[in-house]
Each structure stands twice: as C-alpha cells, then as structure tokens.
Amino acid sequence: MYQLKAVDKHFPGVHALQAVDFEVQRGEIVGLVGENGAGKSTLMKVIYGAYQPDGGEIKIDGKRVRFQNPRQAMDHGIGMVFQEQSLIPNLTVMENIFLGFEKQFVTFGVVSWRAMATAARAQLAKVKLDIDPTTITSDLSFAQRQLVELVKVLTLEERIDGDLVILLDEPTSVLAEEEVKLLFQIVRGLTKRASFIFVSHRISEVLELSDRIYIMKDGAVVDVVHSNDADLDDIQHKMVGREINSEYYREHKQQAYNSNDVLVSFDNVGLQGSYRNISFDLHAGEVLCLVGTEGSGREAILRTVFGRDPCNAGRVKIKGEPVTAFSPMAGVRRGIGHVPRERKIEGIVNGMNVYENMTLAQIRKFARLGIMNVPAEKQLANEWIERLGIKTPSVAKDCGGLSGGNQQKVVLAKWRSSGSDILLLDHPTRGLDIGAKEDVYEMIREMSANGVGILLAADTLEEAIGLSHTIIVLKDGEIQKRFEYATGSKPSLYDLVHHMI
Predict the structure, then answer these.
(1) Coil, strand or helix at 260
(2) Maximum Cα–Cα distance for the chain, whole Å?
(3) Gap between the Cα atoms of 86 and 202, Å rounded
(4) Mean pLDDT, to the nearest integer, of 397-416?
(5) Between β-strands 212-217 and 29-34, what pairing exists: parallel, antiparallel or unpaired?
(6) 3 state SS of 11
(7) Strand, helix or coil at 48?
C-alpha cells in the first residue's frame, strides 16, 4: 500500500498542497480530479519524487520513505506517464524506452542494438503497439508517443521485485476512442501486480476506470468517493465550487459573422502527404471548425495558414492578399495567432516568465534602442492576468511552473494582446478542467463578437458543434462535408461521424 499523511508543499506565494491524505491499495485504480491549479500535478510530482514535501510523511507498505529524485522513486516501483511527454524526440523509440537503463545491453563497452530492439519489441507488445523500435521518436504521432510513454514505465515490471504504482497524467487527452479502450484494457490487466493513479479532466473516463476518486480544490482533498456511488454533477460541483453553467459552450452568445469580410481564403490548396483540394473562406467573427480523425489533415491546414507548412498547390489569400512567402514570422505580421496543441513545447517558452511570454509576439513594441520597457510589459501582463483570471503569484513567475490551464490562458493572452484578428486554435482545451474550458469558451465568444476569425481544431465533436458557425469534415486529407448553421439548427454527432469514417 502507498500512503501519504498530512503532506504539505509550499512555493513562493502559493500553498500548493494543504495537509493532503492519500492512499492507494494494492491492485487499486485511484482517480484524481480537480481544476487546473487544484494541486493535482504537485501531488503527482511529490509521489514521483520530483518534489519533496515540506511536511507530512510518505509510506510504502507501512515503512516511511523519502525520495530525493524520480530515480529513487522508480527504484521503489513508482513510475509516471506524463501528460506533456518526457520522450526525447531525436532518439529512437528503443533508446527512449531504456533511457538510463542501457547497461543491460552493453558488453565490453559496446551496445547491442539488436538486443535492445528485441527487448523493446517485447515491451511494445504490452500495449499492442506495432512499430519499428528503431524509428526516430519525433516521427511518431502524438498518440503513438503517449503509448511509448506508458511502455517506458512498464519496463519497471522486469526491474522491480515489489508492486508497482503507476501514475497516469492525462494519458487519454489525444487518444482516439479505440486507443482509449485499449489503454483501459491494458491498465485493468496490469492490476494483478500494479496499482494506478489516474488523472484526467474527462470525469466520465475517471468514473469508468477508477475504483475510488479523490477530489481536489485549492491544494486540498475535499472529498473521496467510490466510483459506484459517484455522481458526475456532484463531482463537478465539488471541483469548481459552483454550479456548472448549463450553457456550457455559450451558444446563446453566438452571433452572425460578417460574410462580406473574408480574412482567410483557400482555393484548391494542397500539401503533399497531408491534404489536397481544400477550399474555404474564413470570415471576420466566424468560428470555423475542422473535424476529422487523426491524420485527416486538419492540423496541417492550420500550420499552413500560420506559415509553418507551405502548401505546394492552390492559392492562399490572407485579407485579400495572395500569400507568396510562408513563414510564422510573416504570419504574425499578417495578424495571425497560433495556439498549438502541444502548448508546453510550442506555446510557451519554459524559463521565461509570464510577462515575457505574454509580450513575445509584440516584443518590438516594448523595445527601444535595444532596451526593453519592462514596466510596460508588466502592466500589460497584469491587465490580462486580471481579465482572464490567470492564477500566478506574480508576472515574474516562470511560465513553465503554472498549471496547464493557466499556461493556455497566457498563450491566448499573448495573441489577443498583440491584436491578432485571425486565431488558429489547435485543441485549445486539451488537458483543461471544466472551469478552465468554460473560460476558453467565453474568450472564443468574446473574440468572435469582436470580429476575430477563428479556425478551430476542437478537442471533441461536442465542442465543435457547440462552438462553431461552420464545420468542415475532413477524411484522408479531403473535404467530405460542410455544415453551416445557426444556434438551434446544429448537426448531430452522427452527422459528423457519418462523414468522418
């Protein structure tokens, strides 16, 4: 049994964990839910050894332990599958799986790559992932990389004599339905010699997989419920401390867009290997959503608009001007903002503070003769922190230390404060809790009402239907169907799925 008693953790200006009691029994799957900033990530890092608690105690099978680093935690059978992924992109899959444990494949100072590949295949088979272990990790899809993360942790099975405790931090956030089912099947099959702590903002999944659920708010555990007796609405209420707005997607605030003001125009645009014959117009104030399965081309289309992936066929116009030179810098000059799916890698700059991240897209505005006007940067940041309700002890806080939801708000503030009138949102609510999602939806409605054109790749089909004026369904890189509608006449989930698969 793994147990925490009265665990406390402080950071400057933040009481991140407040006398937390938490336990996991042998073979149990424990869910952990709460808003962004509730303390879930901090608790996970204490369990994993990345943070040391300021008070309280940790016990494994009744014996007190204290980990100085994750390696010591792993030696006790504790592994973590990270939401933002810890794999090194330029290494092979097998090198990532056995990173730090390569000695088992070394003889007289020479690594047996063949032996490592054989061992990696055996590990990959645990999650039924049929890929070449010599593949460079950056060539995998996000979903494949997430499964490799799990495989990396499962290698503890062969290295540890005792029971395992595996922490799953948002493992399903970008997995397809069939991949989620496979993951749950794998997790349930491993409970004979492993316990799991499952963190997810998809509460329905937590209810489905977990035996018990811990609910956190403001650094404290506010309740522990058994899944069989749990009520979804009750859990949500305890998480946010308020009733969930029935107008979740703010559909009552949807306004008609300006059909005479075209911001982005695609005319039979194609990008080899990604999409082809794509035509659409994005208007001022319109929320246009691209839906499709993984690899349908929707993310690549967003990257082309931003200038990252230049097209090789067709014609693109931005605000009536043909685009001949593609680059992100040119995209920013055209008033385009991009909120990427992997915010920790592409959205924010770790090591830079909140105000530096927030003013990054308009840095020239705050520079004069090579000197930054820091007071002006801080003033702008404080205004947006108040406007968006960003939880941070100060504008000087390292942005990488904020919760996922607050990082996403910083990214959105970066583009809105710079005056971007075309916004590309690539899964903007991935990994966010209910309250943070509502904040993002409110921002989308506000931006739309102010004439911002929004091109969206939604996290769920319900989100796409709820937020959009227009939906374009993609399959294998081609447009299958276009839906244009007003509030009250939106398509059903079946309408979309029917054209997606």
Answers:
(1) strand
(2) 72
(3) 22
(4) 85
(5) parallel
(6) strand
(7) helix
